[in-house]
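Sample entry (992 residues):
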Amino acid sequence: MATAQNGLEVIRFGGLTHDVESSPFEVVERRRMYRLRHYFPDDPTPSRGLSDGPGGGSVRDHGGPREGRHGHRPVAVLVPPLMVNADIWDVNADDGAVGILHRGGIDCWVVDFGSPASEEGGWERDLADHVLAVNSAIDTVCEATGSNVHLMGYSQGGMFAYQTAAYRFGKGVESVVTFGSPVDVVAGMPFGLPYGMVSDVAEFLADHVVTRLPITDSMVRLGFQMLDPVKTAKSRIDFLRQLHDREALLPKERQRRFLNSEGWVGYAGPAAADLLKQFVVHNRLMLGGFVIRGQPISLAELKCPILAFVGEVDDIGQPAAVRGIVRAAPNAEVYEASLVAGHFGLVAGSTATRNTWPLVRQWIDWMDGDQPLPPEIAPMTEHVVTNRPNSAATRVVHTAATLAEAGAGVGKALEGIASNTVRGSIELAGEAARALPRLTRLGMIQPHTRISLGRLVAEQARRAPLRDLFLFDDRVHTNAAVNARIDNVVRGLISVGVRPAMRVGVVMETRPSALATVAALSRIGAVSVLLAPGSELARAIELTGIKALVSDPENLKTAAATGTRVMVLGGGAARTLDIPLSDDVIDLEQIDPTQVQLPAWYRPDPGLARELAFVLVTGTGDRLETKYITNHRWALSAFGTATSADLDRKDTVYCLAPLHHSSGLLVSLGGAIAGGSRIALARSLDPTQFSEEVHRYGVTVVTYTWTMLRDILDAEVFPTGHQHPIRLFIGSGMPAGLWRRTTEQFAPARVLEFYASIEGDVVLANVTGVKAGCKGRPVPGTAKVELVAYDPVTEQIRTEGSGFARRCADNEVGLLLGKATEGIDLSDGGLRGVFTAGDAWMPTENLFRRDSDGDYWLVDRTDTVIHTERGPVFTQPIVDVLNDITAVDMEVAYGLPVGEDALAVAAVSVRKGFRLEPKDVTEAVRALDPNQRPDIVYIVDEIPRSSSYRPSTRAVQAAGRPKPGPDTWWYNRESDAYEIFTEDEAGTIFGE
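Predicted structure, serialized as tokens:
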């Protein structure tokens, strides 16, 4: 009879009636996005802060004890996840979160987002709406209480807590406490699923499903029940078994009804899409660079103490994912409390009543300075050693016990047996899937194919208009916004006479306007001549045939001094210019693009693969050189870089390399656009700014040129072992010793070194990064290469008896050739009949050797080989071995003319705090053949560098030849050692 009566009551009312009442609260603020609940509002105990006013920040010295707040209540703001009702904090009434915390003297406030089904505009909410809602609630609570708050969040609510605290830079937040909140989804996907597979599915759902299909509360409830069908079945069986015993059911009735029906709310599609894209596909909570209303944010901004509760049998907030916070927030003190609990059990139920909330109360007491830290709370480490069974075994035991209680005869599938193999296979397949379309597209490019920088940018805008393209000065710019800016610049340039094939100089600092200018010229079909600010502009203009210049305001005066017509772009229309406007100085920002009538000849992105797209100017003085880059050559480097570096939409590429350098134009800009990655533009090489923006933007790839990274390493803004999101450094010209310093300082990141010839389509890449200083192997899809025997004295290719050129043996120095593409003009230095009759090759300007593994090593340029009386001496091996000495900062090697021959001379500068001895040099050069060792090595105070951070040999030579003294050493071939260069030795060696 009792069973029937109780069953009828459940059928009629959805559950058993009970007298458990919710904790009292009042809604103190109502806004479109949330309602702010204040629990136990009639409690007369005042809440007083840690500072003189709200939002003043913690006064706790996080390195030692803190002044207490005796007699005043701490304040907690609790944030629920999106799919769960805010009543989660009170589901157990007196034994729930707000009840226990209130009895512990804590003033509780709860953010209630409501249900999107019943709130105005609820289904249009995105992730940023919720973060800004929590941000607003904190302001309200701080103002009402005069206190900083302990910000707490469950599951995704904890993710909101992290994001909001970082967005506020910690203002008004005393500590952050989270419960089962994942940070590093790559480290721990729910249920151990392979990240590569989940990432692809998540991206598809974000793009095509969740934005069109509302996720209702019933769908959420069904989804969660399907996640753990065993537990769902057990709870229902237990309920039916005890249906006759009303008194046994009533204590858990409210929790049962919460989980079965009342506790779930719908999920707005835009918010779900944001979650999937930013935190699952791109993992930006871990790496940094998640975007809140156009502003990039990183958890590295967090400096307040953090307590993360970890559920050892939590299949949703996996322990490895939750513990990612210790790496994502390297500037904060991070603690953890590990409990044998599932996802829901961390905040509700008997485990939460006995363990979670008492520990939270003790955490706040410790923060308050009143009590010691409980032993259950310990500093978090990334890899936890525990005496308990491991996570997988714990889950099995946990599930087996559940099944036994339910009387089931089947077991839950064992996890993790083949997960590593499956995960590795899927990741490898994903990498191949990304590379294949790029290589296929490269193979399809013919001389008449339309391809250009402007065209690729337009493609990105069509495919994903709202996807981030680049970040600059803490602002995010989407594909659509950038493409619109480019079109506006196109109209401005056309209005002042720029036409296809016209050569236009670009002299601008690294900024969005520089990128827009180069892309706009490409869209018109004009040729961008990229010039370094402060370079020899007049000579470069004469050398390249520039008809006009585009300058930013900072370089206007220098550009105008050349007498060439200058168009100014950048800084907005409100800025002032150093020079008054005239017919020769035109402000493009003043032109209204809507009033420009496009001419009939204009066709966007007309550039063909065979046509000239860019001109780079390198060198100084009489060695000023030009590099002519066609659209095909640019695309070759762009897609080759994206393939070699495995760049994709998850990456953010930090462009330290300037656009006027080949590494900036071809590798940074080209690779990022071809790979669909975000581009972070840096104004200049500022180590402090670099360290901040790497975290804030979530930088995964950093580009460099030559010795650029030396400044960052010397500044020590990233101490060894400091957590960072960088996985790769890509560029060209890095010395071997600096390479090793970089990989040691930024482990586990590696270096991807490129080499690209001035003429032809030769591109080499050291993809593995194992051999420091090595240029690697040809990039797939680029020109075939051969190493031909070469006489550096006569500067002639060596031939066999047949008359054809002789290929080099392993480790033999030779001239690098690249297979000429169809239709290339061979009249300017090209070669025919090299290995077979009629074949066509383009020689590079460099000498290489190929080791037994097939990797290529740069040895010298053909015009910088030192011609000594003992034969040719190559400079690059000298530079490499000297740079590998710990004490050496920078170095150059050159030929010092003495009579009819030359001496091989090397100049070095010494790192601050180090001392270089002759024995150090002696040991280092033992790696070289005695005839390839420098005759003289000497120390200079400083080695100047070019605008691309290349050590300047010409500047060192201009300072005069080395002088005898204790910091100059000569190579004594008899003793096989370097000795102090005396006046007597100088007279002998210099012939004086």
